[in-house]
Amino acid sequence: MKRLTLNLLAAAALAVLPSTWTIARAQSSATAPATEIGGVRYPTTAQVGGSTLVLNGAGIRYRLVVKVYTAGLYLAAKASTPEAVLAAPGAKRMHVVMLREIDANDLGKLFTRGMQENSSREEFGKSIPGTLRLAEMFSAKKRMATGEHFSVEWVPGQGTVILVNGKPQGEPIKEPEFFAALMRIWLGPKPADYALKDALLGLPPRATGGPQQ
Description:
Elements lengths: L1 H29 L3 E4 L2 E4 L1 E4 L2 E13 L2 E10 L6 H6 L4 E7 L3 E2 H14 L3 H6 L1 H14 L1 E2 L4 E7 L3 E6 L2 E2 L7 H12 L6 H7 L13
Antiparallel strand pairs: 1-2, 3-4, 4-5, 5-6, 6-9, 7-8, 9-10, 10-11
Helix pairs in contact: 3-5, 3-6
């Protein structure tokens, strides 16, 4: 009887081990190190379109000396040049968290200008349908408050998904040129903020930064 009892206890212990390991893995994932930028935590990984992406880099967008927002770039594998980011296969995500309240319409206009300045006429022409959708989205939002956030995600087979505070804004935008034009706002030859561009690419800070918009 004693041996039977011990065997039953051993079997019960083995039965709960998988659940224990699952909990341990979940706890480990939840406590994985994150990068903190401007008081905003960017996890080291993110799930987009069923793929696990890694944080390529994150930084703060300044306008003059004012902190406007933080941004984090997620890719399937690390990349240190704009060309490598745009050419990288698989899902991608740019996540932006506001550090101050801003007129959403003004933000949309800045983004549109950034897309125009960093794309050829042909590239920008192909991205116009998505650009109009983006302008409508920001116009409807009216204001982006401190702490609010939005993501721009490229999902292979679907297109560009725009999420505001975690909620998708309509159907994906199919044209790949639109996502590339958006990324050039931050990574193009005339980026919104040169220091932020370097941070997103995982590069060390420059001795002197370039001009800011």
